[in-house]
Amino acid sequence: MTQRLVLASASPFRKTMLENAGLRFKVEPAEIDERAVEGALTDLDAESVASVLAEAKAQDVAARNPGSIVIGSDQTLSIDDTLLHKPKDMDEARRRLLTLSGRTHALNSAVVLVRDDETLWRHVSVAHLTMRKLDPGFVGRHLASVGDKVLSSVGAYQYEGEGIQLFERIEGDYFTIVGMPMLPLLEKLRDLAVIDG
To answer: Which of 125, 143, 154, 187 could bridge across to 181 with cysteines, CB 3.0–4.6 Å?
Structure first.
C-alpha cells in the first residue's frame, strides 16, 4: 500500500468488511451532525443524500489526516418517496418493521474517497429488499430475541444475522446491504494504486 487509508466510520460492519478484504487502515469516526447536514438536502433523492453524507464524513476526517485517502460511507433507506432513519428505541423499531412488512424498500449505500480537500471518487449502489408479511406477534418475539442491536440499523434489522428471516426476496449484493459497496471500492483503490492490483 502506497498511501495510508482511513475509514471515517464507527460501524463495526464496515470495519470488518475492510479487514476481511485484507486492507490495512486506521479507523477514525467522523464528527459531523448527520441530521443537520441532511436538513439542507430537502430536494435530493435518497441516493444523493447517502452520497453527500458519505462525502461529508470523509471530508471531516481528511481534514485531520493530511495526505491520507479517507473512505467515507453512508447508507439511507427509502420506501416509496420517504427517507427513514435509525429507530430511536425498540418501540420505533417495532413500528419500522411493521411499516416495511410485505413491502419493498431500497438500501442506498454510498462510498466516497477523499484526500485532503479533494474528492477523488463517489459511488452509490442500491439494493431492493422485500419483506415477507410479518405477524405483529412474530415482530415482538423477533425483537426480543435480537435485542437493541437493531437500533444501529436504519431498517431495524440485521440482515447478516437473524434479520434474514424477515425477507422473501432480495435484489442486490451483500456488501451494499450491509452498508458499503466493496467491489467498486476495491476496484477504485486498485486504480489509484492504493492497494495491490
So the answer is: 125
The position carrying cell 464528527 is 31
Residue in 92, 93, 56 with CA at minimum distance from that of residue 74 = 56
Q: Which helix (H) or strand (E) holds 91?
A: helix 90-100
Class (C level, CATH) for 5-191? alpha beta
Catalytic: 74? yes
148 φ, ψ to 5°?
-75, 5
Enter the pTM of the model. Answer: 0.91
- Tell me which of 43, 45, 60, 74 is the catalytic residue: 74
The model's pLDDT over 56-96, given as tens digits with 9 standing for 90+, comes to: 999 999 999 999 999 999 999 999 989 998 899 999 999 99
The ranges assigned to domains in the chain are: 5-191
